Amino acid sequence: MQDRLLALITGVVEELNERRTEKIPTDDLPGVVLYGDEGVFTSMHLVNFLVRVEEVLEDEFDVEISLTSEKAVSRRVSPFSSVKRLIGFIEEEVRLAEGDVDDVPGADAVPALLGG
Amino acid sequence: MRDMILGRFDELGDRTAVVDPVAAYSYRDLADEIRRLGTTMAEHWVLPHDVVILNGDFSFPSIAALLALYLNRNVLVPVVSLTEASLATVTRSCAPQHLMRVGAGVEIEAIPGASPAAGTYDRLVAAGASGLILLSSGSTGEPKAILHNLDAIVAEKLGTRVRAAGRPANILMFLLFDHIGGLNSLLGALRLGGTAIVPQSRTPEEICALIERHGIRLLPTSPTFLNLILIGGYHREYDLSSLRLITYGTEPMPQELLARVNAAFPKIRLLQTFGTSETGISTTVSESSRSTYFRIDDANVRYRIVDGELQLKSRTQFLGYLNHPNDVVTEDDWFRTGDLVEQNADGYITVKGRAKEVINVGGEKVLPLELESILLGSPLVDDCVVYGKPNAITGQTVCADIRPHGEMTRAELRRHVVDYLTGKVDAFKIPTKVNLIDSVTVSDRFKKKRVLP
Fold first, then answer.
1. pLDDT in the model for residue B105
2. pLDDT exceeds cutoff 90 at B322
3. Considering only alpha carbons, which residue of chain A is nearest residue B414?
4. N or C: which terminal CB in chain A sees fewer CB atoms within 10 Å?
5. Which CATH entry fits the domain spanning A2-98: 1.10.357, 1.10.1200, 1.10.3470, 3.30.70?
6. What is the pLDDT of residue A105?
C-alpha cells in the first residue's frame, strides 16, 4: 500500500510542480518536509495539496478521508513533517475508514433489533 | 382601501383577472368569489383578527381566499406546501385558529386548542388591520415567522390607482404564493387591472410555453431560473417575443450571467428587483439592462449602508418575528439585510453577496458571488456554486461545484478552473476543490442553494 500511496502523492506533486517556479524535488519524496520551517508549502498551498491527495484517494481507493481535520493537525508528530509521515497517517485513516464499513451492522438490522 | 377593492373589481367587470390551469376568471368572478368566501368564513366562525393558515399555491380560489381574509381583517399565514414540520412551526409560533385548504375549492377546519400568547397581535387589533405571516426560507434551523401589517402592504401596493393604457398587462405568477415576491406580483397585477397568469408547474419549459400561449409581457423571476432557461435552450424553442420586461430578484445576479441573459434577450428590458420578506419589495431602477447596479427608487423605503451592509427602513416593515429574537433590527429601527453591497459614484448599488456566506481562507475573505460570476464567463461552465468548507489548517477552503458545458472529467474541469482563474483573481480565491455536478441544487424559491461555511 505504501508504494501505491507514494506513487499517488508523486503524481499530485508533479502536477503542482507544473505551476510552481520553485519545484519540489521528487527524487526523495518521502523525506520532503511539507510544512514548517523547512517545509515546501505555505499553509494555503498545504491545504491545496492535501485536498488534491484526498481527491486521488477517493478516486483510487474509493474512501473519503480528511487530511485537514483537527485529528491530523493535532497529532503530536505532525503528518505534515514529511511525506513519509503523511503516508503513515493516510494508511491509518484508510484502514479506519475500511474498518468502519465492516463494523457497521446491516442498515436494516438496526430497526429490526429495536423493534424486536 | 378595504371598502374600495370589491367596487373596483366590479367596475373592471368582464376584464380577465386570473387565468389558472383550470379556467379564466373575470374581475367580476373574483369579486363574487370573495363575497361568497366571506359568507362561508362567517359560517365557520372565522372572526376578524383570527389567525388562519391559508394552504395552497396560486390559483383562482387561493387568490380569492387571500383577499377575503384581508377584507375580514384576519391574520393569514400562506403556506404552499404544508408539511408536518411547517404545520408544527406555524402552530407553535403563530397559534392559528383555522386552516383553510385550497384545492379545487376551499375547505375550512378549526384548529383546536390554539390561542395566541397575550399581546402578540395587539398592534394589528388596535389598528383594525389585517395581518400577514410569512415563513422565511432560511437555510438552517426553523423558518422564521415574520409578522406584517397586511393593510400597510395592500395600501402601499394598491393605494395608487393606475389607468393602464391599451392592453392590460399579463403577469406571470412565477414566484410562490407564500413569498413576499409572489404577493407583490399579485398585487401588481391587480393594481394595473391586469391578468395574473398562474402556472401549473414552474419548470423552465412550462414557463416558456405559458409565455408563448398567453403573450405574457412581464416575467418576474430569479437569476438561477433564467440560467435554467438558457441552459435548456427553451428560449429558442418557444416564441417569447411578447416579453417586454424581465424582473429578477430573490438572489444576487452574477454579472456574467446577466451578460448571457442580455445576449439571449436583446430586446427585453431587464430590471433588478430588490426586497426582503421583512421590509417588502422596493421599486428599483437598474442602471441599465446590462448592469447589476440599481437604485432603490421608492417613497416607501429608505436605505443606508453600514460597514458594507445594506440596511432598510420601510413603511411596510415587519412588526417582528414571532419565534426568533429581533436582533436584525437596529436600535433605531433599521432592518439589517445581511446583504453586502457596494455603491458607485452615481449612487447605484450592487449586491456583492450575503454576509454569512463570506468564505474566510486564513483571514482572507472570499465572496462566492464574485467567483461564480467570473466562472460563468467561461464557455465551459454552464452553472456553478461556490462555498466554503471548514478545515483545521486555514479555517476554510474554497469549493466549487460546477456543471460543465459538455463532457469533462473532474481532473479536466479542475485544470480548466485553475487555468481560467489564474491571473483573474488572487491565488487564495482559486477553489481548492472542484466537484463535477449534473445540476445546481435550487431551492423551492428558485435560489441557488449554497452550503454555508
1. 86
2. yes
3. A52
4. C
5. 1.10.1200
6. 43
